Give the backbone structure.
Amino acid sequence: MTVNKISVKNLAWYNYLLYLCKVKKRAEDIAPMLAEMTEHLRSLRETVNSQHEQICALNRNIDKQNRELRKLRKENGELRERLARYELPEKNSGNSSTPPSKERMKDEVVRRTKSLRKPTGRKPGGQVGHQGSTLTRDGEPTMVEEESSEFCTNCGAPLDGCERVLDHVTQVISLPQLTPVVKEIRHYITICRNCGERVQPHAKRKAGSNAVIYDDTVKALVVYLNVVLFLPYGRIAAFLREVFGLEISQGSMVNWVNAAKRGAGPAIKEIEQRIKRSSVAGFDESGLYCNKRLDWAWIAQTTYFTLLFRAGGRASKELDSRFGDALERMVAVTDRHSAYFALNFLDHQVCLAHLLRELQYLNELDKAQDWSVRVEQLLQEAIHKRNEHPEDVIDKDPWEKQLKSLLTENVSHLKEPFGKLQKGLTRCQDYIFNFLGNPAIPPDNNASERGIRKVKIKMKNSGTFRSDDGADAFLEILSIVETTKKHNLPIYDAIRALF
């Protein structure tokens, strides 16, 4: 039956049956469709899982690369910082507070051939009008030798008994034969004729003492070589053995140094009291390796006295505990170490030599600017003014006004060290020109630095102090030596007086 033959009445039934057939066909196709969808979902899940693993792996690689990137950035910063040391002027003892022991060999060569002093234009050597000096003849020579020819250079005849005419005189200075003098002292007991008393000699025998001893000349020489010339005990023993033929143990040398320290006790107390009563004193400190630890050597010195002592640190309490209320009556000449400004000194004088070295570094750091050059010129002119008028009281106000003007200039366009030094000078600007108003105040602390430098030379030769007693002995005897120098007295005689 075709559609055309279907009546209109039956057309609705036909459409309905056709719809049921389609629905049935769709129902029969659901199971395969669901299976297909399930398979598709499984495939999608596998894809998602695979992509998740890939994402996790990529995240791990990203984290690893980030860590490596941070490490490389850190290394890059460190390398840039190290490279900057070669691109910028190297800090050394000539343009900073870096000690000579920590500067490079190249900087040491430059330092020994370059000076902060400005050229004067004069030729090197003795200047016109300078009184030279030479060795003078001794009016009473130890011995006289006469020298003359034995044969005539013209005819060859002997010259015995011929007339001689004095031509010239030469005096030759030589050392005597370096052999020790052995002096034997015989101590007698004297029997009194009146009462029969057995009188002992003045020098009584010490229990357990050796019958052969060294006198103060030998002991003082050992202390001199150890403290003044900074020789270790081993080198001193070798010197005495090879030059004098003396076999002296290092233990004996240690005992003699300690004996000199005990003899120096009263003088050390007197030096300390004299410094406490001084109106101007210079101070400085430096590291001192002692008994496998880092201690600090301190120096307090005036024009005539020097005191060195050992302390456990470089804080202000070390000076406070040693000098106490005496600090309130002193003008302290120091560097800009914060410990000195924590003490209640009467006043301060900042070492201009330190400032000039720092300004020299800034001059080398940026040669196009002139701020540090002008500050340097101001300080040098003030020092020159004092040198021209060593005993005058000079008005410091004009100098302070010039400095204040320089310290208020804008240096933000310059590199960081310029602003850092400007801030530092601003904090201590009241302590820079005090030496102009008081002739007793020096413009630098070089005397203290020279005194404490002996400690560094000793450590450079010996490496370290093995005991606290050895370090204290060296510092106290060195105090005696430096004080003796300031009074222009013989050092060797001063050491002999300690025994």
About this structure: The mean pLDDT is 87. The first strand starts at residue 190 and ends at 191. Strands lie at 190-191, 198-199, 280-290, 293-301, 306-311, 331-334, 347-350.
